[in-house]
Write a structure and sequence with these properties.
about 80% helix; about 140 residues; mainly alpha; 6 helices
Length: about 140
């Protein structure tokens, strides 16, 4: 019976669940992760809007002679809306990945708690069983 009490007193050790960013181990995966994290940020979204606004406000004309309708800018970027849409998609994917990581951690913690409760319940059931078996034997 003492061995059972010792086992219950020991904390259960479970590894933390993996995160999506930690699963990317190769060089290409790490580079892709850095690009997605950098380009897929709200700071890149804000910088793009400011950059396009400054270009259209006069920098395009003074630096590159790019007069209205800003052919050079549209050619170089491939379309303002496409660029901003790509950033928005990457931001959304990064946000979804973070939410998914938090959900996995919560489910992991829930599983650890459930496992601990099942172990405690089993030990208590065994103790009750042993107690009544001793009473019925006497």
């Amino acid at each position: 019976m003492a061995a059972k009490k010792t086992r219950m007193a020991q904390p259960l050790q479970h590894p933390k669940p993996p995160k999506l960013a930690n699963e990317r181990t190769g060089l290409n995966d790490k580079v892709a992760n850095v690009i997605a994290t950098t380009v897929g940020s709200m700071w890149m979204f804000y910088a793009s809007i400011i950059g396009f606004a400054v270009w259209m406000a006069g920098l395009g004309v003074t630096v590159a002679g790019d007069n209205y309708p800003y052919n050079l800018m549209l050619l170089a970027v491939g379309g303002i809306m496409q660029w901003l849409a790509m950033i928005a998609i990457l931001v959304a994917q990064n946000a979804q990945g973070n939410v998914q990581d938090k959900q996995v951690e919560h489910l992991h913690d829930l599983g650890v708690t459930t496992h601990r409760l099942v172990v405690e319940n089993t030990e208590l059931t065994e103790a009750i069983h042993d107690h009544f078996m001793k009473k019925s034997a006497t």
